[in-house]
Design a protein that fits this description.
Blueprint lengths: L2 E10 L4 H17 L2 E11 L10 H14 L3 E4 L5 H11 L2 E4 H12 L3 H15 L3 H9 L19 H31 L3 E7 L5 H9 L16 E6 L5 E6 L9 H6 L1 H8 L3 E7 L5 H14 L7 E6 L16 E3 L5 H18 L1 E7 L4 H10 L1 E8 L4 E8 L6 H5 L1
Parallel strand pairs: 1-2, 1-3, 3-4, 5-7, 5-8, 8-9, 9-10
Antiparallel strand pairs: 6-7, 11-13, 12-13
Helix pairs in contact: 1-4, 3-6, 4-5, 5-7
Family: Belongs to the TRAFAC class OBG-HflX-like GTPase superfamily. HflX GTPase family.
Subcellular location: Cytoplasm
Keywords: Cytoplasm, GTP-binding, Magnesium, Metal-binding, Nucleotide-binding
């Protein structure tokens, strides 16, 4: 049975109304993704957050009445709460209290599939919980049943800070090994001149749907936030025959917990190391402009803001004739379910690469099949013909500036 949830939020006077409403709607979606049912949302306008209770004491009585009226199991705050605020609100409301960050961590705990993903989530949970142990009380600090209490493998959180610190140290050590392995994989791909494309975007924009259609694979597709947590990489072929590796990444979101971004740093390195980005936007979402801003900001923080990128305004079929002015260039409007749209998008990727890469025109002997094969797979071949008069293949195409074959083509 779904837990009954009451959301509480403070709106600051200088805060944009549309952004505030967007954050509330997102919190409702997150609550439903975690398996709860939002019964009520209560907000208060304030100059600043109350240091003791988050909300003002005048609002307390209203919230208590709502907790009784709706038989609330869980109160979720739209902002991060300190140890003192958690303790004071728990004492007042007599129900479990969590904040937005704990809710997101809980969803990540449900979603993590790989060993690395589970370790990363547990690390983020431990680092988030450590400074707040005094606020939660021993019964709250143990991971058990209910939203905000789940952990990878139902791990029990002990209230002993030394135990948690030892566990944090152990996880970081184990993750460091995985990070080094991932770095080796990336180095090997670079050595093999594999062209790497990363699919990025706001959570639930349709990244996994696009990934599956591109790669004919079956990563998790759900109309839920953070459906994909563990990155997958597959090989694809562009219209010219050029081969590339494409990676599906975790969705971005505004106000992601700092501990979570830090924990998933190694996973997000896949984005930083990419040669090209496909930025997927749910063009039918009312807050799609703010979503684009959030993704751009996070890309800049990852030092990935200068990587060549195509913005994909996805879910065009849901627009119902509405006109949307694109914020980013270059761009395409499409539906990831339409093969014609995918083909046109891949052609657009090639067109962008032609503008960025060096053109070449080369003649190759028929017996040099290995070189012909490399050019077809590792460069954009626009024309390939066998000229009988000279008994050679004539190839025209485009090649990345720092590709090892550049030396041969310049000879």
């Amino acid at each position: 049975m779904a837990e009954k949830i009451l959301i509480i939020a403070v709106k600051f006077k200088q805060q944009n109304e549309a952004r505030f409403q967007s954050s509330l709607e997102e919190l409702i979606s997150l609550s439903e993704t975690a398996g709860g049912k939002v019964e009520a949302v209560m907000t208060q306008n304030r100059e600043r957050i109350d240091p003791a209770h988050y909300i003002g004491t005048g609002k307390m009585a209203e919230i208590k009445d709502a907790i009784t009226k709706y038989n609330i199991d869980l109160v979720i705050s739209n902002d991060e709460l300190s140890a003192g605020q958690l303790r004071n609100l728990g004492a007042e409301f007599k129900v479990r209290i969590i904040d937005r960050s704990q809710l997101i961590l809980d969803i990540f705990a449900q979603r993590a599939q790989t060993k690395e993903g589970k370790l990363q989530v547990e690390l983020a949970q431990l680092e988030y919980t450590l400074p707040r142990l005094r606020g939660q009380g021993i019964e709250m600090s143990r991971l058990g049943a209910g939203i905000g209490t789940r952990g990878p493998g139902e791990t029990k959180l002990e209230s002993d800070q030394r135990h948690i610190r030892r566990r944090i140290y152990d996880i970081k050590r184990r993750l460091e090994t995985i990070v080094q392995q991932r770095a080796q994989y990336r180095k090997r791909r670079k050595t093999n001149e594999a062209f790497q494309i990363a699919i990025v975007g706001y959570t639930n924009a349709g990244k996994s749907t696009l990934f599956n259609r591109l790669t004919k694979s079956s990563s998790l597709e759900e109309n839920q936030l953070f459906a994909t947590l563990d990155p997958l990489t597959r090989q694809i072929k562009l219209p010219s025959g050029f081969q590339a590796l494409v990676t599906d990444t975790v969705g971005f979101m505004q106000d992601l917990p700092t501990a979570l971004i830090a924990a998933f740093r190694s996973t997000l390195e896949e984005v930083k190391e990419a040669d090209f980005l496909l930025h997927v936007v749910d063009v039918s979402h009312p807050d799609q402009e703010q979503h684009q801003d959030t993704v751009k900001k996070l890309l800049d923080e990852l030092d990935a803001g200068s990587i060549p990128m195509l913005t994909i305004y996805n879910k065009e079929d849901r627009l119902n004739g509405e006109e949307v002015i694109p914020m980013q260039h270059p761009y395409v409007f499409m539906s990831a379910y339409q093969q014609n749209d995918i083909d046109a998008m891949l052609s657009k990727v090639e067109a962008i690469l032609q503008e960025l890469w060096n053109p070449y025109n080369v003649q190759i002997d028929p017996e040099n099949g290995k070189l012909l094969n490399r050019l077809e797979q590792e460069t954009l071949v626009m024309r390939k013909e066998f000229e009988e008069t000279i008994n050679r293949y004539v190839l025209q195409g485009y090649i990345k500036q720092d590709h090892p074959l550049m030396g041969f083509l310049e000879e």
